[in-house]
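Section: Multi-chain targets

For targets with more than one molecule, the full set of components is provided together so that the structure can be written out for the assembly as a whole rather than chain by chain. Components appear in the order listed by the source. The example entry contains two components.
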Amino acid sequence: MNLKNILNEIESVDPEVYERLDTRRTTMHRFSFIGKTLALAAIPSALGSMFKKAYGQTASDVTDVLLFAYLLENLEAEFYKKIVSSFTAIGVPAGAPQAALTVIRDHEVAHVAFLKTVLNSMGTTPPTYSASSFDFSGAKGAGNGPFAAAFSNYGVMLAVAQTFEDTGVRAYKGQAPRLINNKTVLTAALQIHSVEARHASHIRQMRRNLTPGNLVPSGVTLQPWITLAQSGIDTGNASANAAIQMSYAGEDNTTQAGVNIVNIGGQTVAANEASEAFDEPLTKAQITAIVNPFIV
Amino acid sequence: MEMTKPTAKEDTTLLDELAQKEFNRRKFLRFSGLIGVSAVALSGAGLSGCYRDNTLTGGGDDNSVNLGSGDIGVLNYAYALEQLEAAFYTQVIATPFSGISALESEYLKDIRDHEIAHREFFKAALGSNAIAGLQVDFSSINFSSRDSVLGTAKAFEDLGVAAYNGAGRLLMSTDYLTIAGKIVSVEARHAALLRDLISNGNFADLNSLSSMGASNANGLDAAMNPPDVLAIASAYVKTKIDASNLPK
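Its structure, encoded as tokens over all components, is:
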């Protein structure tokens, strides 16, 4: 039996067969040993299950990820749209702070439009979201949640913004593996992912420059990167702090792919920097739990 | 670069074209890779799930390295870039530019440690597949000048972001895709900071990155293929880097 011929045959029907097959390690692994370890009679069923796996997950995974990203980008876009229209009420200083928030607003709005275009091109019409789809107080529509001052208090607004940006980074990171069979969408998602990280970096710098008492815990100096699992946010409300902490859980990881990063290779790398050097993903379920209070 | 400045109107067509182009490029190469994998044993040590192949990495010549192929090649590519960054920031901290502020010193030390962590991680993860240490050439950088140092740092960080964003699609292992994702967002945090140190508010000036594949209209960051990245990076590296076996 000639596997090359089989693949050539399949290619004549589906020119993307290699794209579908070559990316999943487990599939590859099975494939590479089919000829060696399986009895000849077992090959058809092995191939069948392999292709079922290859063809069965790809499209739905990609669409699911894009719809999830679309929800999160709408959340962010509506948040920043409201901010930009409420600069005075929030007390955002004119100049660099207002300009930065406007830049971020523009990017989030662009992400929404881009994702919608991609989804449409794949034959999917995403749900329609608007300002009324979200409750940025964090009360699922009641408007009286712990972040109710987000549009009237500069410190509260920036704390929510930082949490959203750091969470967005973790969300894309967690979903990227599900896109590995669609290289075009994967690359675009990575390109959005790093823009969110740039936003997070800047919002954190803005929070560093706040005067004391703006939800920055005393003694804490914010940095553009995440140290251990520290949010750098103290709302003064235990349940609100716990909600925010969900976005930083696990960021204190200092072991990557089984390699301990602290003082790695005889270099002086402290635990703080070892944790900062790698951002951590969150699962879809974890992200959903974080953003649910903000969705009506 | 493929994702450069598509207009909203053209997006559907553009994505289709990109997908088709990508398929044409990858079809043959991936097929070859498929056969290659079936012909050799999978490595069970060190890089679990990564494909060992017949391409030698490291090389016997002190002045050249071959990154290798498959996921190993992509990880060696990242290792090369992290070596460059770590060496640069090590020098920056060893010979601070005149007038460096406490804030700049704090940030640059942190970044140095992050890049060293990245470099050492790849070295450890690649094990015997790792390329040798690169010889860098920083003769074009004036380490006593703030403008030169921060400008170079910004360029390295933006290039790093573009490199990881462009390399994600070359990886076969979801584990390594996740690792790359963990690193690229930290590089993006660095890039944003350095841009802000040079000119506050430039943290995500995507228009300035359009030649590296960014699209401001779509809110997309830079993404570049390895040959394009290495063409830029090679100005700072004496060692010749052979990327010819990397996935395309």
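The two ends of chain A are 58 Å apart (CA to CA).
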